[in-house]
Specification:
The strands form three sheets. This protein has a five-stranded parallel β-sheet. A three-stranded parallel β-sheet has the order 6-7-8, with helices on one face. Strands 1-2 form a two-stranded antiparallel ribbon. The protein is α/β, with parallel strands linked by helices. The model has no long low-confidence stretch (mean pLDDT 90). It is globular and about 80 Å long. It has eight helices and ten strands.
Length: 266
Amino acid sequence: MTQDTFKIGKRTFSSRLLLGTGKYKDFSETRAAVDASGAEIITVAIRRTNIGQNPNEASLLDVLPPSQFTLLPNTAGCYSADDAVRTLRLARELLDDHTLVKLEVLGDVHTLFPNMPETLKAAETLVKEGFEVMVYCSDDPIQAKILEDLGCVAVMPLASLIGSGMGILNPWNLQLILEKANVPVIVDAGVGTTSDAAIAMELGCDGVLMNTAVAAAKNPVLMASAMNKAVQAGREAFLAGRMPKKLYSATPSSPTVGVIGSVTKA
């Protein structure tokens, strides 16, 4: 297959698997999983991971240097627009004016479902300040379109709740978002195993972001490798175009004329 790249904001990528860096047992396992995944975009929770704000602690940048990967600072743990904006301003300062970020503003500590009014508010502010905003959102096609119109460079609807591993619960809403979107659509949250990732890509999504599905696996590095293959397979299947679904096939796939035992009418 020819090179199948896609753009997010000003950047072009080959890997459509985006990987989180939380929940691994140590930085060594994090790096091994990233390498196995083939991911180029690596998400970093600024409130939970040291990238220089704590000078006396080990830094993730020593293991995943920005020279090798595109770091995607995110606002995991933020429950208001103000907190999210403040967090990403800090990330920009720590990463030498880095502007590609992932915005998430949560509405509930138990479900981690997005607070869409606060998300919209934060997105508008960040875009005006020159950030390239990739945004975690509900699977509501209206909200996704509003975020695109505000200037977000990618919309990231949840497949199911963060960390649930429940897979894609509403493929119909994802298809509605895909039909209207003019920016990349990346499934974020809910992926549990390879089939979930493949289905997202078969629907036509531009990529899949995951963390827990890999980090919480019994063998995270092996799961990262499996997810790499699943995303690629799902993308190729989408490009190939699947056969239409039907209850049964009236036309056999094998020839019926000239086979042993067949009767030819006079």
